Amino acid sequence: MVALVSRTGRHLQRYNKGSRQVVGCIPYRYKGTKKSSSVVEEELEVLVISSQNKAKGMLFPKGGWETDESIIDAAQRETMEEAGVSGVVECELGKWNFKSRRNDVFYEGYMFQLLVKEQREIWPEKDIRQRKWLSVTEARKACQHGWMKEALDVFVRRITSSQRHEDEEIGPCSLC
Fold this sequence. Notes:
- The chain is α+β, with helices and mostly antiparallel strands.
- It is 26% helix and 34% strand.
- It has helices at 40-43, 71-83, 136-142, 146-167; strands spanning 15-16, 19-30, 44-50, 58-59, 62-64, 85-99, 106-119, 131-135.
C-alpha cells in the first residue's frame, strides 16, 4: 500500500559536496504489442507531469533522494508520489549536474527508465499535478529542462538498441 501523501521536509535529504541529490524516472509504455526496433519510437509513450507551480512546460517525475532509502526506492517513490504510476526500474540513464532556475542551488540528478505496470487514479500529488502520456517527439518539445531532454535521448538510444538486440535474437543484453 502506498501512502496517499507525499514526503515533506528536507531533514533526511542527501547532499554531495553541497549539491542536493535528486532522482527521477522516465516512465514509459508501448501503445501496441509489437515492439520491433523499426517502430519502437513510434510505439513508445512516456509520461510527463506538470510542475507544482504549473510553470510552462512539462517534466519527468523527480525529487529528493533521502538517507533512509536506496536510490531505486527513491526513484520509485517519487514517481508514485508525483505521477501515480509504478513499475519496473530498469536502467540508470545517467547523472546530470544542474542549477535550479528559481534558487541559487546546485543539484546532482540521477534518472532511470521505468516500465509502467500500474497507473493509479488516485495518487499523492493528484490535486497539484497533471500527467500526460506523450510520444517521444512530443515529450522532447514539452519538457522544460535541458538535462531531462538529454536523459530522454539516452533512454531512446538504449531502448532502441536493446530492442534491436532482441529482434536479432542475440539474447539478454546488459546495455544499461
